[in-house]
Amino acid sequence: MSVLSALPFLKPVHLRSPRSSPGGQRRHTLPASEFRCLSPEDAVSVFEIEREAFISVSGDCPLHLDEIRQFLNLCPELSLGWFEEGRLVAFIIGSLWDQERLSQEALTLHKPRGTAVHIHVLAVHRTFRQQGKGSILMWRYLQYLRCLPFARRALLMCEDFLVPFYQKCGFEALGPCEVTVGELAFVEMQHPVRGHAFMRRNSGC
């Protein structure tokens, strides 16, 4: 059984939003919202959103196109995309890590035996920002991780100004991150994945 088929809340969600035609009759459209794991075929769309979101702020992207393709080939089950009427509007890409804290190697490596999910990037398309989509997507992603038997915690690194956002998502700051990118420094944050047995029993996992 695939990971996806075991998770009811991560199966593609097709929420149709009927629209009225000029004659007043409703017509069907593409699904309004769909959540699913990403595939290598989504890599270009992912990179376009990421590039616009990050280059204007920090001058670089957390993941380059070849790295996105690498992770979506090695561990697509650790990604999640939000699609609106077939268009990617937000995404998360993660990989596994096998140490207590992140190091420079964590930026490009996937450790299949790891128990920590390193969240490399969360990004929302510019036309869909300020709508709470980032928080909603992160919530769904964390629920998903609780159903993966190997996942024990989620790790990420972010700049200071993003710390309050991730704290609202349930992450706690671990202190300065060892990883640097150019002159940028980061705070490392953690979210426990295990210890939610009641939630797992009631989520169909």
From TrEMBL:
It comes from the Eukaryota. GO terms for cellular component: cytoplasm. Pfam families: Acetyltransf_1. Pathway: Aromatic compound metabolism; melatonin biosynthesis; melatonin from serotonin: step 1/2. PROSITE patterns: GNAT (PS51186). Residues 33-194 form the N-acetyltransferase domain. Gene3D superfamilies: 3.40.630.30. InterPro entries: Acyl_CoA_acyltransferase, GNAT_dom, SNAT-like. It is an enzyme of class 2 (transferase). One of its GO terms (molecular function) is aralkylamine N-acetyltransferase activity. It catalyses: a 2-arylethylamine + acetyl-CoA = an N-acetyl-2-arylethylamine + CoA + H(+). Keywords: Acyltransferase, Biological rhythms, Cytoplasm, Melatonin biosynthesis, Phosphoprotein, Transferase. PANTHER family: SEROTONIN N-ACETYLTRANSFERASE. This is Serotonin N-acetyltransferase. It comes from Todus mexicanus.
